[in-house]
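Notes on consecutive records. When two proteins share a document, each keeps its own sequence and its own token line. Never mix them. Below: protein one.
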Amino acid sequence: MPRRTSYRHGTPNWVELQTPNQEAAKSFYGRLFGWEFEDRPMPQGPTYSMAVKNGGIVAGIASQAPDRAARDVPPRWNTHFAVDDVDASAARVEVAGGRLLTAPFDVADAGRMAFAADPTGVSVGLWQAGKHIGATVVNEPGTFIWSELMTADHDAALPFYEQVLGLTTTTVDLGGSPFTGFTVGEDMIGGIIPPQREGVEHRWIVYFSVAGVEEIARRVEELGGTVVHGPISTPVGPLAALRDPQGGAFSVWAFNGPTK
């Protein structure tokens, strides 16, 4: 079982759903992935739900900010990256062509965080761990396994992530097609892809590990969600793009390679 006790700087360490219907989302993902929840009151804010599986924390579900809910902004899965010094990373955001959406602030003793938008408008979280390192169980069915940046402007995005998070890139052959991955040292920790069709929101796509993609896709529809596309086969395992009943987009992947 892949257990985590720490994350290297620049590694995705936490995924969080912001949704207008927190209880409905908990019911959907709980039944889909077998998650249980620990609800934690937040200082000067609503309750934050920690998803738990196999004795570890795997993801978060939070209420959407009232202004976003009032504008009918769809739910969104956000990816957070571990940083050694969030203030230093945040200071590089605008220099690298991005926008600092939320200045660094303490989340009690859990850690210190900031939110930014890269030059292509995609939001990204920066997390300096205190007592909360991020997900403690990953890369197994029902837990986070991968994040992938979908943007049309790779030339603008890549330097931003290099300057703010220290990420580098490598291109590999994936079944006859080139694939660009973000790397920390020798480890590939995420990917970058162009939009698959017109009108798709540019974002960090969150993938959850599953044992069987077809079974999960059927289950999503039974629970009121939507299969956007897939299952499709890839050289590293089948995957599918899905939406929860409130419209939150996420993906699942039956990865067939080694995990750490």
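Protein two starts on the next line and is unrelated to protein one.
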Amino acid sequence: MLSSKPKPLSYRAKDETSCPICNHKYHKEILHSGGGRLIAGKLTSDLRRTYELNKKFGKVYPMAYQILTCPQCLYSSYPNDFTNLKPEEIQEIKMSTVSRRTGIEKIAGPLDFNEDRNLVLGAASYILAIDCYQLRGIQIAPTPKKAISSIRAAWLFSDMNEEFPDMGFNKVSDFLYTKAVKYYYSTLEIMSTGNEPHDQFINLLGPDTDNNWGFDGVVYLNGFLTQKYLHLLAKTDEEKIEYLDRSKRYLGKLYGMGKASKSKPSVIIDMSKDLYDLISDDLAKLQGTEAAPSE
């Protein structure tokens, strides 16, 4: 008896998607759920969920399917924002079509988004989304979406560096991590001031697709990325102290609230405590003082 052929990783939506920028029509690709396609592994220190190698499907990148990208003009966004544009946004994104394609192909090479998503197309889709969100208004809260797109792109370009070493993708990844630091700090301010509408991004803070860590994740990642990439963010000791002290204050509040609330996930609180202590040590070395341990 012949064994049945396994279902593919993804499928094409029955209904057409029409690009609001160039009016090109295509069938978006959707990742199948279930069927043993995703075998969850450990959570990394930057809140990325790892997945074990699947014997049937190989390496699976669920993040690669999250961004809608028009195969013709490469307009990209998260699904809820795809058609929610103002006339002036449509015009600006349309005018930047050539530079958008030229820019991404300088980084990732020739791309065809008519093909099924893979690691390269997934990584490229997030850079395209960042470029497009640069041209969007505050009504759809572009800053947090640039933050999460930056860190996801950094993860995927890091994977590309492992798959295709010596092609400079590690430099792209590092650059995207530093962009993520700046966008995450701006997101912290937005969540405090409400300058961009919370309801447009609160359900999209991830940073990965398996769990939404919400505001706690933003605070933690701001500190984690600041500490790890401080050498790329600041040139002088004074600047380094400023970056670290700012992250430490946010982490201290998160850890303090976590101790006082049983509703806070212990994983993020424990990771925040460890990061708080690490940043305290770094600050002490820079300031020539002895760090006090967290309680």
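For the record: The chain has a mean pLDDT of 90.
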